[in-house]
Amino acid sequence: MAQIHSPLPGTFYRSSSPDKPPFKADGDAVAVGDVIGLIEVMKSFHEIRSEVAGANIRFECDNEEPVMAGAVLAQVD
User: Fold this and answer.
1) Where in this protein does the record put region Disordered (predicted)?
2) Which residues touch 60 (CB under 8 Å, ≥6 apart)?
């Protein structure tokens, strides 16, 4: 099992806007380079890309949840 960590503190978003579907849902397969979410810091949005591939992603934080740098965003099997 691998973990995907937040590279910086901010607010985690699972989709690009409230009316769009999430980049990845719990249970989805993930490839290296897939965007799994966004971190917003002072009105600037940074894509969070997976550095691992796997068959099952499980998010450890909710949409619009504040996170600290190094926090686990998701786990990948």
Assistant:
1) 1-20
2) 71, 72, 73, 74, 75
For the chain, list the strands marked E by DSSP: 2-5, 10-13, 35-41, 44-49, 57-59, 65-67, 72-76
Show the domain range for 28: 2-76
Which CATH number goes with the domain that contains 39? 2.40.50.100
pLDDT in tens, 6-53: 999 999 999 999 999 999 999 999 999 999 999 999 999 999 999 999
- Residue 14 near residue 34, CB atoms below 8 Å: no
